Amino acid sequence: MTTYTFPENFLWGAAASGIQTEGVTNKANESIWDLWHRESPERFYKGIGSQVVTDTYNRYKEDVQLMKQVGFNSFRTSIQWSRLIKDFETGEVCPDAVEFYNNYLDEMIANGIEPMINLYHFDMPAQLQEKFGGFESKKVVELYVDYAVKAFKLFGRKVKYWITFNEPIVPTEGGYLYDFHYPCKKDGKLAVQVAYNTILAHAKAVHAFNQLSIEDSKIGVVLNLTPSYTRNDSEEDKQAAWYADLLFNRSFLDPMVKNEIPQELCDVLKEQNVLPETTAEEIEAITSAKIEFLGVNYYVPRRVKAREAEYDLDYFTPEVYFENYVNPNGRFNPYRDNNEILPTAVHDIAMNVKDNYGNVPWFLAEIGIAMDEVSEGKPDEDGYIDDTFRTDLMKEHLAQLHRAIEDGANCFGVHQWTFIDNWSWTNSFKRRYGFYRLDLETGNRIPKKHGIWFKELTATGTFVD
User: Fold this and answer.
1) Which residues contact 276 (CB under 8 A, 6 or more apart)?
2) Cα 305 from chain centroid (whole Å)
3) CB neighbours of 35 closer than 8 A, spacing ≥ 6?
4) Fewest C-beta in 10 Å: which of 48, 181, 292, 381?
């Protein structure tokens, strides 16, 4: 048995987003998810859209008490752009949204829970997508910055940790390469422009935040970092992994954390004839926007091999340089599409941040163990759902994080995905990740045994395995 003890003042909690928890109650405008579900409900698991959520808008006081019951000292969620801003052209805010977010923040703070607030979690306002193309347009970059400034001014004194974007590569991939997010386009050049404009929006928001000089408040970004592992040690496979890392990790990590745009990335994009439209002023903004912390989301590794089959798409995607690969000797989660389980990747990510990104302060902003309602089973006689599978795997991942901290990683917290089983994009409620189960018929929150273990961990900063 080994005892793992984490640093004092470590942040323990969970992550969620506004759109996945608040729903559409009293919302000023539609998001692209509201629009897409209205147009194509068949794209969503069992046809369930973002109208069916945990109803945090009405139940936030109850939920904050549930956070306390499992030992949270922090919680990350997001402001919905489509809720806060009533008129996108004038920047007029919705008074109801201001009241709700103030009340929610106050409730967390009063109960010893540090709010960490993200400005954008995949939820482009539908009006801006339809009128301008969302982040295809630099007009929307400016509107995003206006929205960010409104949020900073309204809530800045209550929020110590601001986050510009959560996983900015995902809307780029999903919306413009692989057709799993709206607007469901397949256009490599447009994808690159969206990625660049998102990085630019982040940079301008960072500069705007710094100009406000909000006391005792920091700004950062949350990126999903997926290490690329090779099939074997051949030079061809190593080169494939290098390309995967460049295009999926470094494309956002280098500009946002190191304030560098890799020349190798520019060379690849030029070779593929997909370079974005830029200006010298924009590049200066990107390369001077210093963040103060990084959030890292990790779920599964990426396995790659050198391309063997002919690339058969008529537009650019990163896979032109490699093929994905399934490790025949891997461990797999039967409850999440047989995704590979690789806890050692947490250590690898931490060492990469330490060795190559200035050991920037960072936290594990999302790590989640998926199950489903059937595998979790029914509550026991004490009213708890037995999700020991989740706890056992979380111990393995946290053991690797502890090893990384001992090796010098500058990690200051862990947030698990998620607090209460929440609606999750086109998967709706197919997978369950929460400390509490959401009963879709009654809205009741049903506790899981993982929360008992987590409360002991957060109370002592220690677990034994």
Assistant:
1) 192, 193, 195, 196, 197, 269
2) 27
3) 126, 129, 130, 182
4) 381
85 pLDDT band, cuts 50/70/90, is: very high
- Model confidence at 50: pLDDT above 90: no
pLDDT in the model for residue 215: 92
66 neighbors 50 (Cβ within 8 angstroms): no
What string of DSSP letters covers 395-421? HHHHHHHHHHHHTT--EEEEEEE-SB-
Q: What is the pLDDT of residues 112-148, one digit of tens each?
A: 999 999 999 999 999 999 999 999 999 999 999 999 9
Q: Tell me whether strands 74-78 and 11-15 are parallel, antiparallel or unpaired.
A: parallel
pLDDT band for position 59 (50/70/90)? very high
Q: pLDDT at position 335, please?
A: 82
∠ CA(96), CA(97), CA(101), 5° rounding?
A: 120
Measured distance CA(176)–CA(316) in Å, rounded: 10
Tokens of 347: 């250590």
Those residues whose C-beta lies under 8 Å from the C-beta of residue 100, and which sit 6 or more positions away, are 26, 57, 60, 83
Q: Residue 293, SS3?
A: strand
Cβ atoms < 10 Å from Cβ of 1:
4
Q: How far is it, in rounded angstroms, from Cα 276 to Cα 187?
A: 13
Say what the pTM is.
0.97
> Across 104-249, where does the E strand assignment appear?
114-118, 161-166, 218-224, 228-230
What share of residues in the chain are helix, strand, coil (percent, to 5)? Answer: 45, 20, 35
Residues 7 and 387: their CA atoms lie apart, in Å, by 27
Do the beta carbons of residue 120 and residue 18 sit within 8 Å?
no
Which one, of 187, 179, 325, 202, lies nearest residue 252 by Cα?
A: 202
Question: Which residues are catalytically annotated?
Answer: 167, 366
Nearest to 397 by CA among 445, 333, 344, 353: 344
| Over residues 44-72, mean pLDDT | 94
Query: 436 near 451, Cβ under 8 Å?
Result: yes
- Residue where the block lists tokens 């949204």: 97
Residue 57's identity, in one-letter code, is Y
Cα atoms found within 13 Å of the Cα of residue 451, Cβ hemisphere only: 23
